Every structure is written in structure tokens, then in C-alpha cells.
From TrEMBL:
The chain crosses the membrane at residues 12-31, 256-278, 299-321, 333-355. This is Uncharacterized protein. Keywords: Membrane, Transmembrane, Transmembrane helix. The lineage of its organism: Bacteria, Bacillati, Bacillota, Tissierellia, Tissierellales.
Length: 414
């Protein structure tokens, strides 16, 4: 039987899927280019990239013997350079001031370049010292010292040694005006910026704002740590590979991905409207609907749809790491969007047809008869009827010659 018209034909519907999918993809591209839908303000996770790197720059828990600490970027993903000159009490856990504010058990491993280590109890600290072969451990429970003040230099830039953070801020800014630089001083709980976000170019303000907020939060937590004064400079080199990778990743997560999702949702809604305004009688005559209805309802609902969402999440994670693959209209990213809209469209039309089929035909509908549950019930129902009929035939054959007047037959019957 031929399809009624092209809108219900397999060819017509596939063309409609393709056109709607392309519209959805183009909407996503337009949205990402024009910030139609941006999740930047609500993306707290991206902020922690700044927070963790700033927090790592303070080295609050111990200083070791060296007054210079180079903190290596072993993963190559830290886009913030920091230059911190810290004036602090080197033996703070062993001072009277520390003990007034805390009852933590601290083991001094400075002679072994281990800084200070905290333990839950005195016994645990003793055991840790023995494990290291330390016979006479220095533990703050039984040792109190006068404060020893020292200056420390902390950085993840291996091209400098002892430095003036404010001088570095001036020199780095003169080298490249595009650099994002925040510098200042912290003393007695008061934070003051000497170079603030008002000196950062407008296109980089959102990164500078995140960095400043991270500095505020981290520096607000350094009281009772022995740090007396900090002179700092934090630098984001906007031309560095680490920052380019971060910027690309953030653009994907905050801009490209949500706008692409908006395009997919738009395409799905358009296909849903197409199905809602379709005539059921013409749908029944369509080869397309006859074909998709051969798939049992349970496979679509409990198999295909969850698989679709799982693949979508895997694809989103993949492209968040491989953002270089999203640079042309023929990118796999956009081709997968077309596939996503088309497949979810087929699922939508399938479910709509099932609902209409049940509404018009009830339990005699095709979707009910073709479901796995229905087939299982029919199978066991037929088996039960078959066994019943077989049992009935045996009973009939046995009772055919039964004479209740005979005593033997009567005894066998009971």
C-alpha cells in the first residue's frame, strides 16, 4: 500500500529530519557565536580551577628548611603563574600562639625536608616518626618555642629565584599588555590590591574576576597559619598554551555545549510538533510507521532511549577534551548533532504513534500486540491452554468407558 502523501512517506520524513536537524545545528552555532545561551555565571566548577591554583601558591602547612619553594606544574594544565613573598613564623605549630588556637598534633620533619605533618594523636605521630627511623621526634605537644620569623619565596616559574612580586608585575605587564595581572599585599587579615581588574582589558575581565574572587577566598582563610605578611603577583599569560587550552575548554563548556544542546532541543521540539499534527489514519497507512512499530515498545523505552542519553554524555565528555575537533562545519561534533536530532525524532514519532494507537484501538492496538510483555503472556497463555486441552482430552478418553455401576471403576475414580 502506498503512502498517502510525502509528509507521511519514509522519504519525506527523512528529508524533514535532515532539514530540522540542520536548523538545530545552525541555531546552536548562531547561539554560540552571539552568546545566546551562556552558562558562564552559573559554572562554579570552572571557578575552582582558579581557587585551587591560588590555594596551592601559599604553602601554608609547612615551609621546610629552604626559603625558596618552586611548585612544579607536573600536569602542564596550570595557566596561572604566581609569585608570592611570604613573611611568616617558620615554627608556628610549636609556638604558644598556635596552641592557644589549636590542639592539633604536629610532627616537625623540617630536618628531613618534609615540613610539618599533622596527626590525630600523639601516639600516631610517634609511630610515624619511628616508621621514618626518627628516634627523637620533635612533636609540638611537648615542645614550645619562641616564634622564628623568616621570609619565603613561592613560585611555579622556574626562571626566577628570590624576587619582588611588585617588580615582576610591572615588568610582565610591560612585556605584554594582554597579560592578566593582579598583585597586592596581605597583612594582618587585610587584603589590598595594587594592580586590580580595572587595569585588565575588557575581553579578559571575566577571567580576572574569577582570579580576584579566588584570591579573596583563599586569603581570607590564612589566619592562624603563622603567615604575617604576603606580597603577591598572580599572572595569566593569555598567549600561553595552557591558557589557550583552558579558554577553549571553558568556551566549550560554558558557551558551545549549552547552545548546541539548545539546538538539539529545538530540533526535537519541531519534530514533536510534526508528530502531534499528524493524522493517525494516514500514519497507520505509512510504511515508515509500520517499519518502526516492528520494534517492541520495551526495547525503545528501556534500551534505545537510555542508550541515546549515555552516548550523548560520552560524546559531550569526549569533545570537552578534544576541542580541536570543533573547528569546521564538517566537524564530527556537528555531524553527531544531526544524528542526535534525527534519532531522538524517530523515538518521538514512535512514542506518539504508540499513544495514538492505544488511544484509538485500546488493547487490540499494534503496539500492545507487538510488545515483549504481550508476547510473553500470549506464549504462556497458549502453553497453558494447550496443556489444559491435552488434559481434557485424556480425561474424556478415560471417562468414555467409565461405568459408575461397577465397583472397580468407582474405586479408581476416587
Amino acid at each position: 500500500m502506498k503512502d498517502v502523501d510525502i509528509r507521511y512517506s519514509t522519504k519525506g520524513l527523512l528529508i524533514a529530519f535532515l532539514v530540522i536537524s540542520i536548523v538545530g545545528v545552525l541555531l546552536g552555532i548562531y547561539g554560540s557565536k552571539n552568546n545566546l545561551f551562556n552558562s558562564y555565571k552559573s559554572n562554579r566548577e570552572s571557578y575552582y580551577d582558579y581557587y585551587n591554583q591560588v590555594d596551592n601558591s601559599l604553602y601554608k602547612d609547612g615551609a621546610g628548611n629552604s626559603n625558596f619553594k618552586y611548585i612544579d606544574n607536573i600536569y602542564g594544565d596550570q595557566f596561572i603563574k604566581f609569585y608570592v613573598r611570604s613573611y611568616k613564623i617558620a615554627n608556628y605549630p610549636f609556638t604558644e600562639e598556635f596552641k592557644r588556637h589549636s590542639n592539633k598534633v604536629i610532627l616537625d620533619l623540617n630536618e628531613y625536608d618534609g615540613g610539618f605533618e599533622q596527626y590525630s594523636s600523639y601516639g600516631a605521630a610517634i609511630d610515624a616518626a619511628k616508621a621514618r627511623g626518627i628516634n627523637d621526634p620533635k612533636i609540638n605537644i611537648n615542645v614550645t618555642e619562641e616564634p622564628l620569623y623568616r621570609t619565603y619565596y613561592l613560585t611555579n616559574d622556574n626562571s626566577v629565584d628570590e624576587f619582588d612580586p611588585q617588580y615582576i608585575a610591572d615588568s610582565k605587564l610591560s612585556e605584554s599588555p594582554n597579560n592578566i595581572i593582579l598583585s597586592g599585599v596581605w597583612e594582618d587579615g587585610v587584603l589590598k590590591f595594587t594592580k586590580d581588574i580595572d587595569q585588565v582589558k575588557n575581553e579578559n575581565r571575566k577571567y580576572a574576576t574569577n582570579l580576584k574572587q579566588a584570591i579573596r577566598e583563599v586569603y581570607a582563610s590564612i589566619k592562624n597559619s603563622g603567615i604575617q605578611k604576603l606580597n603577591f603577583t598572580y599572572l595569566i599569560d593569555t598567549n600561553s598554551m595552557a591558557f589557550k587550552q583552558y579558554e577553549s575548554s571553558m568556551n566549550y563548556e560554558e558557551n558551545l555545549l549549552p547552545n548546541s544542546a539548545l539546538g538539539v532541543v529545538t530540533g526535537a521540539v519541531l519534530i514533536l510538533l510534526l508528530g502531534l499534527f499528524s493524522n493517525f489514519e494516514k500514519m497507520e497507512e505509512s510504511n515508515f510507521y509500520k517499519s518502526i512499530l516492528k520494534v517492541p515498545f520495551e526495547i525503545v523505552v528501556f534500551g534505545a532511549i537510555p542508550l541515546w542519553f549515555m552516548c550523548a554524555m560520552m560524546a559531550a565528555d569526549f569533545f570537552s577534551i578534544n576541542t580541536d575537533l570543533i573547528k569546521s562545519l564538517l566537524s564530527p561534533f556537528y555531524l553527531l548533532q544531526i544524528l542526535a536530532i534525527s534519532t531522538i525524532g524517530v523515538a518521538e514519532l514512535y512514542l506518539l504513534y504508540c499513544l495514538k494507537d492505544v488511544f484509538y484501538n485500546g488493547f487490540s492496538s499494534k503496539v500492545v500486540n507487538n510488545s515483549i510483555v504481550s508476547k510473553v503472556f500470549n506464549f504462556f497463555g497458549q502453553k497453558s491452554i494447550g496443556l489444559f486441552m491435552k488434559s481434557k482430552n485424556v480425561s474424556t478418553e478415560y471417562l468414555k468407558d467409565f461405568d459408575p455401576g461397577k465397583r472397580r471403576n468407582l474405586m479408581l475414580f476416587f
